[in-house]
Amino acid sequence: MIQELKASYGHQFEDALLVEISQVGTFKDVPAGYKMIEIGDYIKGMPLLLSGAIKILREDSDSDELLLYYLEKGDTCSMTMSCCLGQAKSEIRAIAEIDTKLIMIPVIKMEEWAAKYKSWRNFVFESYHKRLNELLQTVDAIAFTKMDERLLNFLKEKARITNNSSIYNTHQEIAYELHSSRVVISRLLKKLENLGKIELKRSHIQIIDLN
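Given the sequence above, the corresponding structure tokens read:
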């Protein structure tokens, strides 16, 4: 575990902190599609990602989802930290986008390390800042960006995260994550196909050129 920690966080944390993380952290191997956190759960630990990706989603009063952002190697979730420290119920849903390796840090250590290690404090503050910027980008996209452009950006990001030019999501799943309807998404996907940017296969969407 210590070698994987150094590969992902060695540039951020002191050796002493890395050792402590390896001693108290719980290693988890999470398969793609696994729901790690549900809305309303009490969160008992904070994830540090070693590899893979996790998507963070919100849900409205009609149970429709909205993709907020992805967590990747070297990241953590500031909304998880807030719930842990405030002993509040989760307001987000976290699902592994691809096979993911992570370490869960117990709440008590999060507070202890904030006082003990400057690098941990900086990491927490930077994580809050990064997630806030991503949330603002999501709000801006909903408010100011047309759905066809949002869909294009979604496909680009999905391909980057999964490192795969084949997108194995149904039109309905994409509609959920973009907070749209399946009919709208299907129409826009067909438009992208007509432009030669994608091919709509029976089981997946094949990216040709999204530039």
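The radius of gyration is 18 Å. Try to locate this feature in the token string yourself.
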